[in-house]
Amino acid sequence: MYKLTPAERLRMVMEKTGLSEEEGAWIGQRGLSLDQADNMVENVIGLIQVPLGVATNFVIDGKETLIPMATEEPSVIAAASNGARMARKEGGFITSATDPVMRALIQVTGIADPQGARQALLARESEISRLANEQDHMLVSRGGGMVGMEVEIVPTRMETMVVAHLLVDCRDAMGANAVNTMAEAVAPLMEEITGGKVFLRIVSNLADRRVARARAVFEAGEIGGSEVVDAIVLASALAESDPYRAATHNKGIMNGVAAVTLATGNDSRAVEAGAHSYAARSGIYRSLSQYEKNGDGDLVGTIELPVPVGLVGGATRVHPVARANVKILGVESADDLGRIIVSVGLAQNFAALRALATEGIQRGHMRLHARNVAVEAGATGDAIDTIAAKMASEGNINLERAAELLREL
Ligand code: MEV
Questions:
Q1: Which of 72, 245, 356 to mutate to test the pocket of ligand 1 (most atoms within 8 A of CB)?
Q2: What's the pLDDT at 368?
Q3: Which of 386, 384, 399, 371 is closest to 78 using CA atoms?
Q4: Which of 187, 277, 289, 345 lies in disulfide reach of 257, CB 3.0 to 4.6 Å?
Q5: Which residues of the chain, if any, have pLDDT below 50?
Q6: Which domain holds residue 147?
């Protein structure tokens, strides 16, 4: 695919995924209009564009899937495709997910007897639940709504607070709006029950009840042999125990996760916040993925993280390119999307670890970076690749050399 022009690639994606001419035009030419943008956020003055590419080779739960990815970083889409290719022999990515349950927090303060208040709240859960569900008939009619409540007692530097968590099945919505509305609606009842004063009523981005998982087996022969398997297992062991490495390991995962999140018009900050807080849930910040060697000597990668994403209610429905990207993915529910997103995170992570454990990432990365440098120097058309290839072969990738080569051309 990388040998085609952008227009040819788009045509190929349209043919494979059934995108209409109109949807293709949104992706390839029109994008978001200023008027649409003006309806989305405040004080709009323009648009900033980010490249949209398609990662290939993904088989997820037995289905061939093209992955639209929005990212400014070179190598990311190529690496994801490469990682996915190496998982194919053993069947690709196998996924699972919890129900799409989000948490809303209600902070109750000024409580003299937190244990008593906790029990009083729990005793009235069905009444609280009824009131919460009255706020969103649409969600309830789709099988969602409040499914439970937890009450935490949180000692803080100010006082011991009672924090109620509404657990809400958000179905195909990301759900922040739905749960915030419910939290605000039940707060007065909670004050009445506890005699306390409520301040915050807001979603928690530590969406630990809405996680997706993926696993894949990478056959040793496919990835460079048993030495590579062992090196990746060692890299994983470090990231599982050392926050300094885990931060970069997880950054690599988020290269894939954030790119699909953004391409589908979802809230990438919510997903980032959820991922990193989940990584720290044991009290130590750890990797979101693990790698083991199985009985056959092959590499088994696993990943688990919260994916608070939706298909309804957010920018996904409003942004024409995001809508077309959802169609490319062929997803019908937020759950499907979450499971694809974590698979991309795993492929991305695996590709980075494999590169790090073997030749290092710089060679491949710089090769792609060289194209950006050539463009920065003013190269266009074929000159970009010619200059990039020359700089890469010389091992001398900088603006001055690119300008020199451009003059020579
Ligand atoms: C670069 O964007 C991401 C990596 O640093 C991830 C990693 O170190 O695992 C390559």
A1: 356
A2: 74
A3: 371
A4: 345
A5: none
A6: 101-204
